[in-house]
Automatic annotation (TrEMBL):
Keywords: Membrane, Transmembrane, Transmembrane helix. SUPFAM superfamilies: MFS general substrate transporter. The lineage of its organism: Bacteria, Bacillati, Actinomycetota, Actinomycetes, Kitasatosporales. This is MFS transporter. One of its GO terms (molecular function) is transmembrane transporter activity. InterPro entries: MFS, MFS_trans_sf. The chain crosses the membrane at residues 20-43, 50-71, 83-102, 179-198, 219-242, 248-269, 281-298, 304-329, 341-364, 370-390.
Amino acid sequence: MSTPTAVAYRRLFARPGALAFTAGNLLARLPVGMAGVSAVVMIAGARGSYTLAGAVSATGLVASGLAGPWLARLVDRYGQAKVARPATLVAVLGALALLLCVRYDAPDWTLFAAYASWAATPNVGGLSRARWAHLLRDDPEARHTANSFEQAADELCFMLGPALASFLTGTLFPEAGTLAGAALLAAGMLVFTAQSGTEPPPSPRTRAPSPLRAPGIRPLLACFTATGAVFGAMEVVTVAYADAQGQRALAGVVLALQAAGSCAAGLLYGALPPGPAARRLRRCLPAMAALMTLPWLAATTGSLWVLAGALLVAGTATAPTMVTAMTLVQERSPEGRLNEGMSLVVTALLTGIACGSAAGGWAAEHLGAGTAYAIPALAAATACLLGRALRGAR
């Protein structure tokens, strides 16, 4: 007998083209979770420096954050396929250039230049959400189901991506993760953009003011930046910690447990009565700050599996925080500028991830991988302090 949940998703994917563009979307989204671990393992293994690996990863993320709003405006103006296909080509060529530069011992500056091309990767999750919004504009209940699926897909890709990248780089050759990610991105975007029947039409420019001028948006973006630093530092430090334990191939599995904790907490959190989003965020941020101290404490045991358990628990704080903050951005973005508001969120997150990656790589190399877990804990505490600026914003 079918459950109500199964019936809702069956209805969702029964719509013409929905299953096909979702399959392409998932293929293209998986490399987003693979890219960081693949680049760090590949560069650190070839050059022997986590500082360099973290800095290169940070450069790519900063470039992505700067290019994201510009690409989003082009998509809104010209359509998904016309912008996403050439942008994907640039990103894939950049990934291949990075692989060749590492493989043939090119100068360090070439690594930064090549990985910066990854900034052309389209916001695959945003493109998919836009299609659902277009297809389900007259069906709020189905649109809610689609949004829930997209959130689960994000968590799934960040669970599987690092694990797949670590497996490929650890069991085949160091460049395998980057090569596989480029292939998946190209194939997935071709499948996704081929579904022209589900593509939303281009929209004209709006005269509404920038989301940056909306009350409360800037403190929210600051919180997103600090939260991004948690993610970036945690990824690099965990790879370094597993490497120090002689278990580099398990780094992705350990990071996947953190994403699993976030996914489970997000599903449970979504079943709770919502209440005012600003009040919920002021509760979520201190919880995240407290739980992010657990990996730091667990690292002192020297056990990768104790650390894995701590990351699983710590991850339960991130999804509620992200969901609540995203809700506030949606509430406060001016009408007609929601996509730009969400792209600014991505920029803030990527900026934070870049800073966290660089700081985590430096701390792992100079202070030790265990001590370096203080970086994500400090970033979470910073997000908590910045969240206090939201108290008076309406």
